[in-house]
Design goal:
Helix Hairpins, mainly alpha, 2 domains, DnaJ_domain, membrane, J_dom_sf, two-stranded antiparallel sheet, DnaJ_C_subfamily_member5
């Protein structure tokens, strides 16, 4: 495990990996999976809130926790500085109504898609990612391919 950890550097640490091995593959911890999930729960957990909370609840919880974990109040605690960064990130998403709606619907994957393709294109991206849309596009592709090969044969 140490050789793998040395080879991949900061990507592998005990925070992100369980100590259990399945064959040669490592399983990610629940915390790491939550950051990549589509459930939309982890930012609310960072601020100690429930998913349906109000904007005022977000503001109150953020202020309370930001004062508690502010790096100036905890100069010798690097964990507090890391927690403060997480709080700022969670607050920036949840306080913006558009980004919060995307996060509630699609989780952190939705935020990533919004960053890559724009907030207006998130619903389109996920609609085109469904199995029936892929089948429909494949059928359209096949019909075009078949019709062009038929025309060449005449």
């Amino acid at each position: 495990m140490e050789g793998v950890r040395d080879a991949l550097g900061p990507q592998l640490d005990s925070k992100h990996l369980n100590r259990k091995r399945t064959g040669d593959a490592f399983r990610m911890s629940d915390a790491r999976q939550r950051t990549l999930s589509t459930s939309g729960e982890s930012l609310y957990q960072v601020l100690s809130l429930e998913k349906g909370c109000s904007h005022d609840d977000i503001k109150k919880s953020y202020r309370k926790l930001a004062l508690r974990f502010h790096p100036d109040k905890n100069p010798d605690n690097p964990e507090a500085a890391e927690k403060f960064k997480e709080l700022n990130s969670a607050h920036s998403v949840l306080s913006d109504l558009s980004r919060r709606n995307i996060y509630d619907s699609y989780g952190s994957l939705g935020l990533y898609v919004a960053q890559q393709f724009g907030e207006d294109n998130v619903n389109t991206y996920f609609m085109l990612s469904t199995w029936w849309a892929k089948v429909g596009l494949h059928l359209c592709e096949c019909s075009v391919t078949c019709s062009t090969s038929f025309c060449k044969g005449s």
